[in-house]
Amino acid sequence: MQKMRKKLLVIIISVVSFIGIIVIFGSGVSNAQISNTDSAKDRLQAIKEKGVLTVASANDRPFAYIDPQTNKFTGVDAEIITEVARRLGIDKVEMKYVPFENVLVELNKNNDIDIAADGFYVTDERKKEVLFTNVWYKEPEVIITPKATKFNFKEDLKDAIVGAQNKTPFLDLAQKWEKEGLIKKIKILESQSELILAVANGEVDAGIIDYLVASYVLSENKNLNLKMVTPYKPEIPGMVAGAVKKTDATFAEEVNKKIDEMKEDRTLIGILKKYGMDEGNFVSVKDGNILEQ
Predict the structure, then answer these.
(1) What's domain 140-228's superfamily in CATH?
(2) pLDDT band, residue 289 (cuts 50/70/90)
(3) Are both 14-136+240-292 and 140-228 of the same fold?
(4) Is the pLDDT of residue 280 over 60?
(5) CA distances (Å), 198 to each of 6, 164, 165, 167, 258, in order?
(6) What CATH number was assigned to the domain covering residues 14-136+240-292?
(7) Where does the Solute-binding protein family 3/N-terminal domain lie (predicted)?
(8) Taking the CA atoms of the chain, what radius of gyration do you get in angstroms?
């Protein structure tokens, strides 16, 4: 059992997160900092002078991570923001690793970080902290359980211990279910890899997680003894976007123009399809305008 636990840990960590990596693409990147007193110099002008767009991420697959084989910044969010950067005239992109629970905090306090991207759901609570770009795509939550379990439907969870990641809408949903008596107890995990491992090892009966993460992990690990609960009707809208500092409204507007261009010329749906998504995950220019929501 101990051997199997270690094996699962290695598999899951390798699939979901490679922690502590900071990679700069290209050479000769300046260390110039953006002045706090001239935050929008504007931000885009300052980024161009710096020569690199710096993206804060928790290095999470399949959103934004460093591929250990190619050493390249990749993932659905990574490809979207890299294309945005290219269209803005920025050829170099840097990923700065920050633990997920601290990404938005670090974005606000570290003026060298230009944008955060890591499958962030747009929520009212997060809107208090940051300014979101227009929506990039949507993807719902799912429930995962061991393949052999008595918890096969959401209605079965009233006797279950359910895991959820800290500081996510999934934890908010689990807490709502607990108050309503729909689940027995919550176990809070600090990362998606810990959550998946807890479900696989039976430390929790089920877990609430991103559909995209669950789909990716299960497709990459055919022997992982987990499944998604179906049928299940998602309860979180799951609108995903990038985040910038509230003082960087001008920069956000420029990013939004490029996001909308990518939607209109179908570049964005092309990226989504590379990661197993389809038209159901696509959000139109009209529906993706955060300022109108």
Answers:
(1) Periplasmic binding protein-like II (3.40.190.10)
(2) confident
(3) yes
(4) yes
(5) 12, 10, 11, 18, 40
(6) 3.40.190.10
(7) 52-278
(8) 19
